[in-house]
């Protein structure tokens, strides 16, 4: 027992938190990258509007996402027959909706930072279409990793949508954020603080790895100024 | 006859309905270096991008050794050539990675890659730079790496867009000389786009003059330089002196032209009374402190107003009623005591002058 909570219960909350946040970020990433590349290479009517919508969706209120997913998964909703309401799958779905625009929008911005002439040079050296995508991907890596970090930070700290579609069911859909919310309501401040510290520690660890990866790419500022 | 490395037929290209290229026929032979010389905005880079299959022309056919390019063989044909942009652009990673890029994407075996890397690093003095990041290199080193990553591929055709324009004069000469040696040794077929006539003269076997999207003249470098097809081209080719005059009469196959205070004799065909421009190149001018007895028909007289050092010679400008430009070697400048304000005689053989009628010029 730690501060009135079962040890195995805490482990389960941590496990689920890491599982849903990582999986949703990963799935959002695989859906976002093709979208960003498509928007980079193709020009079509309504493209600008679409990009504006994606950029707006980066700041989508989580409760709106929660409502949307709830409507989808509600028994009478279009996906009601899947019986996913109040399951980890519902949480992951909501988190994908939150993470996708962040990764798409930030990745697209990072692709635009790559000099288009460098891509022309790659083609001029003999790059095929796939090899060209790979060059673009590698050159924009700095921004792409930032996009993943931003999305992961958003989903792991999210509470509104997770509560709405997950339901904070003990041992089933309870994650760190919803647990902290619950314990604070009950006045168990020391347990809430303990869980909050765990949440921060997880977030820090994962960002540490991503940052180390990112730092491999950059050339640090080396110039000593007078002041 | 040997089959041409690259041949372009009936090329038409537009940007926003504006015609930017109109080239009925254009070809480059194996082993030669062709320079496309033209002013800014003439369409030089566009032509080079189209020739490199990087841009699809609105209309026209492109052949590589007789094989017509289409969407099916575009990649395999494009991989026979390399095009270098007008500034060296590198990928993240080391110089080594950048040099090997073209080989890697072509699926060349690791062992062969290393062999060629060795060879090219030796050729371009890049050994010490291989592990550096390209951003750490000086301009000259960057351009060397740039040329090396193209030549490591052994392309059938090398397309260079203003390859030396970002370098200062000394460095430009050094790298151009290196490049020219390697190009000749390898018999590397090359197209160079430039607006710098000295680069073109130094590097090219043939010269194509591109103005407003059209090839106005093409021929061996010597041909084009000595007989520019129009005034426009003569001006583009640089330091020529231009004098306007009126045809006064014909004498034993020569035109007698009145210009400023001179009677000028030159070959050409023009009617009496017709307005003409006389063009001559600065290397054809002979300078003398006093008018000597000689076979030279045309003598002009005036004070020196400017002396400017160029890469190998001194450009000297005389005010003879018009600005007359002459090249002198440095030693000649010293021996003759050429200095501003001093008066000299400038002599030109009738054969050194080319005459363009102004009426004809307007038609172009």
Topology at a glance:
The complex is a heterodimer of chains A (227) and B (364).
Chain A: H1 7-41, H2 47-57, H3 62-73, H4 88-112, H5 116-124, H6 129-139, H7 141-156, H8 160-166, H9 176-185, H10 189-215
Chain B: E1 6-15, E2 18-28, E3 33-37, H1 44-51, E4 59-64, E5 67-68, H2 74-78, E6 81-84, H3 95-105, H4 110-123, H5 139-151, E7 157-161, H6 169-186, E8 190-194, H7 197-203, E9 206-211, E10 214-220, H8 221-226, H9 231-236, E11 241-251, E12 254-259, E13 262-266, E14 275-280, E15 286-288, E16 298-309, E17 314-319, E18 323-328, H10 330-336, E19 343-348, E20 354-357, H11 358-363
Parallel strand pairs in B: 3-8, 3-9, 6-7, 7-8
Antiparallel strand pairs in B: 1-2, 1-4, 4-5, 9-10, 11-12, 11-14, 12-13, 14-20, 15-19, 16-17, 16-19, 17-18
Helix pairs in contact in B: 3-5, 5-6
CATH architecture descriptor text of chain A: Orthogonal Bundle
Average pLDDT of chain A, to the nearest integer?
92
CATH class of chain A equals: Mainly Alpha
On the 0-100 scale, what is the average pLDDT of chain B? 89
Quaternary state reads heterodimer
- Residue stretches of chain A low in confidence (pLDDT < 50, at least 5 long) are none
Q: State the domain count of chain B.
A: 2
CATH architecture of the largest domain in chain B: 3-Layer(aba) Sandwich
Helix/sheet category of chain B:
alpha+beta
Overall spatial form of chain A: globular
Helix content of chain B: 25-40%
The first-level CATH class of the largest domain in chain B is given as Alpha Beta
Number of strands of chain B: 20
The largest chain-to-chain contact, stated as pair and per-chain residue counts, equals: A-B, 19 and 24 residues
CATH superfamily of the largest domain in chain B: P-loop containing nucleotide triphosphate hydrolases
Could you estimate the helical fraction of the residues of chain A in percent? over 70%
Low-confidence stretches of chain B: 360-364
């Amino acid at each position: 027992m730690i501060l009135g909570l079962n040890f195995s219960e805490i482990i389960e909350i941590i496990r689920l938190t890491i599982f849903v946040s990582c999986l949703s970020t990963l799935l959002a990433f695989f859906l976002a990258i093709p979208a960003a590349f498509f928007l980079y290479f193709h020009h079509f009517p309504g493209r600008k509007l679409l990009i504006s919508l994606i950029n707006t969706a980066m700041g989508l209120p989580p409760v709106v996402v929660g409502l949307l997913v709830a409507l989808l998964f509600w028994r009478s909703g279009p996906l009601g027959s899947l019986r996913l309401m109040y399951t980890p799958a519902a949480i992951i779905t909501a988190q994908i909706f939150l993470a996708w625009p962040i990764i798409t929008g930030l990745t697209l911005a990072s692709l635009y930072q790559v000099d288009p002439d460098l891509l022309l040079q790659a083609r001029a050296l003999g790059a095929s279409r796939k090899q060209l995508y790979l060059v673009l991907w590698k050159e924009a890596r700095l921004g792409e990793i930032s996009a993943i970090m931003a999305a992961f930070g958003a989903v792991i700290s999210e509470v509104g949508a997770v509560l709405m579609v997950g339901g904070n069911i003990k041992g089933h859909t309870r994650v760190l954020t919803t647990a902290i919310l619950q314990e604070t309501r009950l006045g168990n401040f020391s347990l809430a603080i303990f869980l909050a510290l765990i949440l921060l520690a997880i977030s820090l660890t994962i960002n540490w790895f991503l940052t180390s990866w990112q730092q491999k790419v950059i050339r640090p500022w080396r110039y000593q100024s007078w002041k | 006859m040997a089959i041409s490395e690259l041949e372009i037929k009936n090329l038409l290209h537009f940007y926003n309905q504006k015609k930017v290229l109109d080239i009925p026929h254009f070809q480059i032979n194996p082993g030669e270096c062709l320079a496309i010389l033209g002013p800014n905005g003439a369409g030089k880079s566009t032509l080079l991008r189209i020739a490199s299959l990087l841009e699809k022309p609105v209309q026209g056919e492109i052949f590589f050794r007789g094989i017509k390019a289409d969407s099916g063989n575009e990649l395999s044909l494009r991989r026979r050539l390399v095009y270098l942009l007008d500034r060296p652009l590198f990928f993240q990673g080391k110089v080594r990675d950048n040099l090997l890029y073209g080989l890697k994407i072509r699926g060349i075996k690791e062992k062969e890659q290393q062999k060629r890397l060795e060879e090219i690093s030796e050729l371009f003095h890049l050994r010490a730079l291989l592990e550096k990041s390209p951003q750490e290199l000086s301009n000259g080193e960057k351009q060397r790496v740039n040329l090396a990553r193209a030549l490591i591929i052994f392309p059938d055709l090398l397309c260079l867009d203003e390859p030396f324009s970002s370098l200062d004069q000394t460095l430009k000469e050094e790298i151009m000389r290196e490049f020219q040696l390697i190009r000749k040794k390898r018999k590397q077929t090359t197209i160079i786009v430039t607006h710098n006539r000295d680069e073109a003269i130094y590097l090219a076997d043939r010269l194509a003059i591109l103005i407003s999207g059209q090839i106005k003249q093409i021929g061996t470098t010597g041909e084009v330089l000595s007989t520019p097809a129009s005034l426009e081209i003569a001006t583009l080719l640089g330091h020529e002196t231009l004098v306007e005059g009126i045809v006064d009469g014909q004498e034993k196959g020569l035109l007698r032209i009145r210009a400023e205070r001179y009677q000028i004799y030159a070959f050409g065909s023009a009617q009496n009374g017709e307005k003409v421009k006389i063009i001559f190149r600065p290397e054809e001018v002979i300078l003398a402190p006093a008018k000597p007895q000689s076979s030279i028909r045309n003598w002009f007289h005036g004070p020196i107003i400017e002396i400017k050092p160029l890469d190998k010679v001194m450009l000297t400008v005389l005010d003879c009623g018009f600005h007359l430009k002459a090249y002198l070697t440095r030693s000649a400048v010293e021996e003759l005591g050429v200095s501003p304000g001093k008066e000299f005689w400038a002599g030109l053989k009738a054969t050194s002058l080319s005459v363009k009628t102004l009426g004809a010029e307007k038609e172009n």
